[in-house]
Amino acid sequence: MQSVIQVNQLSKTYPSGFQALQNVQLEIRRGEIFALLGPNGAGKTTLISIICGIVNPGTGSVLVDGLDIVKQYRQARQRIGLVPQELSVSIFETVWDTVSFSRGLFGKPADPAYLQQLLKDLSLWDKKDSKIMALSGGMKRRVLIAKALAHQPQILFLDEPTAGVDVELRRDMWQMIRRLRDSGVTIILTTHYIEEAEDMADRIGVIRAGKLVLVDDKSSLMQKLGKKQLLLQLVEPLPEIPPALAAYQLQLSADNRQLIYTYDAQQEQATITTLLRQLNGLGVEFSDLNTQESSLEDIFIGLIGDAA
Ligand SMILES: Nc1ncnc2c1ncn2[C@@H]1O[C@H](COP(=O)(O)OP(=O)(O)OP(=O)(O)O)[C@@H](O)[C@H]1O
Q1: pTM for the structure as a whole
Q2: Ordered structural domains, the chain, with CATH
């Protein structure tokens, strides 16, 4: 798949001397949903803000659709829509004026039909003449999305789009994001909700303390994450793993009293049944049997901790 954003060896030190990003290397593929995960202060907003031209890059480069975000700022920025974390519109303006103005800002000719459809899609059409200050928090969020999409960008950034959002709006937002992706828009979002990334993203990146510690396809990540273990407490210590069971790649505990079988969560139950039958055939008796699996949360905490 073609890359739409190319981040090369990007580092950023704020004037305070704080280094927020270190040698970030990242490629975003055209048409994907990419989720950037990381704890508070990891550098997610800094990275997005640099790509969107709001914060000056330190060293390194960023290409958006092949355009350098510093040297070709206007053309690069025109391709991007940004839904920021915080409200960034005048509360005295109406919804319609806000989105129309935003479209004009990017040099796009007026297109009332497009804006009408956009507001309808976001359930904002009946509020088009309301001032922003008269809207609920959820509606204000929708306005931010409408504003970001007013100039029909190819790439949409959403910074913590569902923080503090109720279940219904969250569901609507995800539906809309999927529709946008289906229409060819590339989506990059940050989130603290791992389940959300799991549900939505094609690929996942994990950032910690300014470093990108992992980028992977969600499906392969899920495979790696989806490990389970079967623990068998043996009646008698086993001197060694019987050669007949080599295919299972079992582990034997240091006291030789526990056999551990690690398998993929997706794996067929039948394998376990066969293993138990074989153990029985070999006369290996066990007094207890249980399974354990690492939660997604555990794995991410592990990943984030490892990078310290
Ligand atoms: N203008 C600034 N001057 C100095 N330091 C800054 C500035 N902006 C951000 N930082 C610092 O850079 C680090 C990364 O901040 P950033 O907002 O990118 O994190 P984040 O991953 O988006 O966090 P959160 O999940 O809390 O939004 C933080 O330690 C923050 O305090």
Answers
A1: 0.78
A2: 3-223 (3.40.50.300), 227-295 (3.30.70)
